[in-house]
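DUF1707 and DUF2154 domain-containing protein: structure, please.
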Amino acid sequence: MTANFDPRELRVSDAERTHVVSVLQKAIGHGMLNLDEFTARTDRALAAKTRAELNVLLVDLPGVTHRDSDSPLRPRPERINAVMASIHRDGQWRVPRDLLITNRLGSTDLDFSEAIIEHAEVNIELRVSGGSVTILLPERGSVDAQQVTIAAGGLKDKVGVRGGGRPHFVLSGTVTAGSLHLRRASYNRIGRLVIRSPWKLSWDNSD
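Here you go.
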């Protein structure tokens, strides 16, 4: 008879410890930890022997932690590939915590205004070459695109506010000979008629 084995008791490597420290550094940068908390958790991470000991250091950090209880490493990001093609997502699509957008001579249009977003923070890595990416944030969403490198391309940011809103989108990566357009949905209501900018009409069916 084989005994039940808890994968959380697996031994961790130096690479896993270093990864958790980098996540804690990101958390302090977003104001989720103070300096004393960061120092204490870093000491515990570097001394951790098992996955369970690492997991407990991240479990209360929304947007920078992971869902997999068996590993301190985040799941691989969901990929969106547009190679000489156009990709558009809108409506009530479910948004993962991590997205990787690869765009070569294509266009990617992501409308988050009605999407199902279960995370306080969404991380989007861009690998754009000769293509265009348009991101429409929810009405109260915020964005940080300071980690995006633009080379021979353009950034049109109509959002402006870097933080404070939720969900918060963190963009990173490169845009080479392409364009990145950021904007936020806004709404006007006339009775039950809801007018969204960018242009879209709907009806408010709530009582």
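Notes: Residues 78-187 form one domain.
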